[in-house]
């Protein structure tokens, strides 16, 4: 805990040797000394009639938060000239209106001509008001701010430079936020050709160059430049093909076309890029981002420091492979080529992948052994996750069998005609199946997921982005290599991409222009995080697998313990494992109930009692904290219900619409349960573990969906397809079908073409 003015605040470990900039965004959270440059467009309102008070208040709040974390924050602010210009314009209008009123008796504002205002006078008029506003805002957070006005001479004169440096260091030592601006009231106009001339010289001609010079002079870790554009684009923002550049490297400026400068202020994007590159060369990391967008300005600075993908990050370290955006574009192009292949060719790719899984099993198991050893040494995975991470010969054989099932049933998936209609004479309409586009599948600790999902994407003609957990990196690498080897037989290697960069899941979920569907495979927490982070991209999946088994009064003694044991104990970490056992009240204190309890004890299943069950017992197991719990381990909850109707109501209230089972010999009771339970999978006298794409005969699954739109339950090839409409006409126009037109709608259903069932 550090203290200043008797106000304690937490510090975080923020220290590094200055001299080299951060290589990756994820490292920005370690930045201790940060300069935030606020452009004129950020500080002033859009109508140029005052300061953007709400925006400034939000920026001050973020800077105060970072300051109170133990960071050393500095602000380089624009806005004095623009603010002063607005103040002087109002003063001139007011004085002119008074003079005209005295001479003519009326105000003729429409005839007033406002003279061109000299920039130095505007700066003198605006500087005091701007600083007064900053002081008032920082005071709300018990933080002191200090103003420093500089000119180019303060950096070129050695004594002045040392004085400036000493003053800034002393202010930072006292937990004061320095607010720096060029002294535009006295500074001469910039020389036409005075620009960047190497790492040791930079002309302070605007606040962009001032911020860069200050950042290097003070050995700053991070420079954040806020403007009115999202960052640096590969062509002027607003043009049709403009794309935001996520990471900018020295030398890339040759491929960039710069647009005009901002609506207010002196600098433009070209000046910002030159200043940023100069600061980067001096060892300071730089991010250029939008400080005016109402949806992100309230957290743009903190997001940047947290390493989120905001704006353009300047880095000297160029990655060996493509960026994730490039990978998504490659996957889309590859997916379109894949969809254009003949069905037999797509099936051939999947058969080849199945063969490789068995032919290369030794290499796969060796890579998996590395992952297991690293996970065990680091102790970062629980036992259920270690089981998911582990591969074996039997698992690989099962994978290969599943892939061959996918290949066999994929021949008639893409391009299948679902509906044919004769709309009118010689006007025929068809609805056909097509791929969704680019899928992003994010999975944890399950390397066997990679070939399964890849095969389903290949069969459905979709491009695929895969993001696996780092705990399975060696396994994922070799499995992806084998997948691309199989794809290469028909020249579509790029259709399946494995994301190896340091992309955060939240950043991937923002690529709404590149990704069409996100499918998470992992813990309920992972799924919830992805559903929360996804911006404009649909997410297919389930956040929890709270599966129930209801034991009815008419249940068979032989079936009950077998089904419950298999549902809970066969693979307790699976999302389709039993979590809550519902027992009919009449079965309590019966031999059947005793058999259930004895079996669970033998299997070392920890029992949690529901509220009603606990009320029947003198000495009950630990009472459950929540009836809506997914244990993912050898634990389960037991609760008592009075009827099948109450069992259904309990499932609807506490379940997750995943998989629910009834055990009974009464067909009428079973049918009531099957028809009334509103879950993706509802079974009668069968284990919850059957809720699986492979066991359903789908070959494999990309996941189990509990949503009510598009796909539900285990999602195979069909769930990765959508449709499009094909209309074939002959000079047809809508006006021919008007009241007095020559044509009439027929809307006749036509027979579907025969499906290929070979």
Automatic annotation (TrEMBL):
State the PANTHER family in the record: DELTA-1-PYRROLINE-5-CARBOXYLATE SYNTHASE (PTHR11063:SF8), GLUTAMATE SEMIALDEHYDE DEHYDROGENASE (PTHR11063)
Family annotation (Gene3D superfamilies): Acetylglutamate kinase-like, Aldehyde Dehydrogenase, Chain A, domain 1, Aldehyde Dehydrogenase, Chain A, domain 2
Biological process (GO), any one? L-proline biosynthetic process
Q: What gene is it encoded by?
A: Aldh18a1
Q: Where is the Aldehyde dehydrogenase domain?
A: 323-588
Q: Give the InterPro entries listed for this entry.
A: AceGlu_kinase-like_sf, Ald_DH/histidinol_DH, Ald_DH_C, Ald_DH_N, Aldehyde_DH_dom, Asp/Glu/Uridylate_kinase, G-glutamylP_reductase_CS, G5K_ProBA
Q: Which family does it belong to?
A: In the C-terminal section; belongs to the gamma-glutamyl phosphate reductase family.
- Identify the pathway: Amino-acid biosynthesis; L-proline biosynthesis; L-glutamate 5-semialdehyde from L-glutamate: step 1/2; Amino-acid biosynthesis; L-proline biosynthesis; L-glutamate 5-semialdehyde from L-glutamate: step 2/2
**What function does this protein fulfil?**
Bifunctional enzyme that converts glutamate to glutamate 5-semialdehyde, an intermediate in the biosynthesis of proline, ornithine and arginine.
Question: Gene Ontology cellular component?
Answer: mitochondrial matrix
Q: What is its EC number?
A: 1.2.1.41, 2.7.2.11
| Aspartate/glutamate/uridylate kinase domain sequence ranges | 32-290
Provide the assembly information: Can form homodimers/multimers.
Major location, coarse class? mitochondrion
Q: Does the keyword ATP-binding apply?
A: yes
Reaction(s) catalysed (UniProt annotation) = L-glutamate + ATP = L-glutamyl 5-phosphate + ADP; L-glutamate 5-semialdehyde + phosphate + NADP(+) = L-glutamyl 5-phosphate + NADPH + H(+)
Q: Which residues cross the membrane?
A: none
**UniProt-recorded name of the protein:** Delta-1-pyrroline-5-carboxylate synthase
Domain of life, per lineage: Eukaryota
Name the source organism.
Smithornis capensis
The answer to whether the entry has keyword Lyase is no
Keywords, in A-Z order:
Amino-acid biosynthesis, ATP-binding, Kinase, Mitochondrion, Multifunctional enzyme, NADP, Nucleotide-binding, Oxidoreductase, Proline biosynthesis, Transferase
Query: What GO terms are given for molecular function?
Result: ATP binding; glutamate 5-kinase activity; glutamate-5-semialdehyde dehydrogenase activity
Q: Where in the cell is it found?
A: Mitochondrion matrix
